[in-house]
Amino acid sequence: MSSSASVGLGIPVPKMLPITGTWTLPFAAYFALLANRVVYHRLKNEKYLGDKISSSPSSSSSSPNSTDPLYIATRSHANFVENVPLAFLFTAVAELNGGNRKWINYAMAGLLMFRVAHVELGLTRENALGGGRPISYYGTQAFLGGMAAYGTWLCRGYWGF
Hints:
It contains 5 helices and 2 strands. It has helices at about 20, 25-45, 70-95, 100-125, 130-155; strands at about 5, 10-15. It has a two-stranded antiparallel ribbon with strand order 1-2. The chain is elongated, with a radius of gyration of 20 Å.
């Protein structure tokens, strides 16, 4: 396996983000699953706009225990979109600045585990209150804070530290 690729006239260019690149497929696959769940509930219930199947007050999203399947699907998808792109950005910054690829790889595996658990063991459980939800929320926040701090630490020499 080559650690570089050819561009243009055959000029070798090193693969700069192999770990970040490796994790794009599993994250994209889970993203597609979440998006398809939204589409499934929209088609099944013929609800093509909005985030709730019923517009009655009993299914209001203001209820902390809302179990409307379309609402759960849209929130699961949105939660993923709110966190994963920033996580990939922070990971790329750390990897480009010489971060330990072994530990970055472990961190990305942990992030995927947290994002899957957030939905599958949290939001999709009874009353959307499964144990995976708080654990995964704090795990994802720890990942974001930790990877941002790691990326900053790797650049400390630039600032004279």
